[in-house]
Amino acid sequence: MQDFVTSTVETITHKFIDNHTGVEHGANWEFIPEHCRGGLAAYLQWGQPVGSFLTAVLRNDLISAVLRADDKNVVRLHHYAAFLHAFADPRSYGSEEAVAAWLDVKGAQGIRQAEGAL
């Protein structure tokens, strides 16, 4: 599985995180099902809460993600892993604590505002 994720990520242009959106310039959203793109983008950019499936994905909780996934997402969990690794601000995902902190700071916009206030 690691080789698959690594090869998927290598086919994607690698990181330059946009401080306005929390997502890399040129991010390839085709890996994410259309009905989840808006929620994931709003979470990354503004720290808006997402549903239980995306929350589980962002927290790196595989069992919960599988149990909450619809038929389109259950077969694309590896795409979420590759997308987040390649395109998302690494502070925005990976554990329950990371997700809670991202929500608290209001995402990339909140971080940008806080850094501008320094």
How would you summarize this macromolecular structure in one to three sentences?
By secondary structure, the chain is mainly alpha-helical. It has helices spanning about 1-10, 35-45, 50-60, 60-70, 75-85, 95-105, 105-115.
Distance between the termini: 42 Å
Q: Which geometry do the CA atoms define?
A: globular
Structural class of the helices, strands and pairings?
Answer: mainly alpha
Average per-residue pLDDT, rounded, comes to 83
- Give the biggest sheet: none
Share in helix? 55-70%
Order of helices and strands: HHHHHHH
Number of strands: 0
Low-confidence stretches: 4-20
Q: Strand share of the residues? A: under 5%
| Rg measurement, Å | 14 Å
Alpha plus pi helix count: 7
Quickly count the domains. Answer: 1
Can you walk through the features of this model?
The radius of gyration is 14 Å and the shape is globular. Helix 1 crosses helix 5 (77-87). The protein has helices at residues 2-10, 34-46, 52-58, 62-68, 77-87, 96-105, 107-117. It is an all-alpha fold. It has one domain. The protein is built from 7 helices and no strands. The N and C termini lie far apart (42 Å). The model is unreliable at 4-20 (pLDDT under 50).
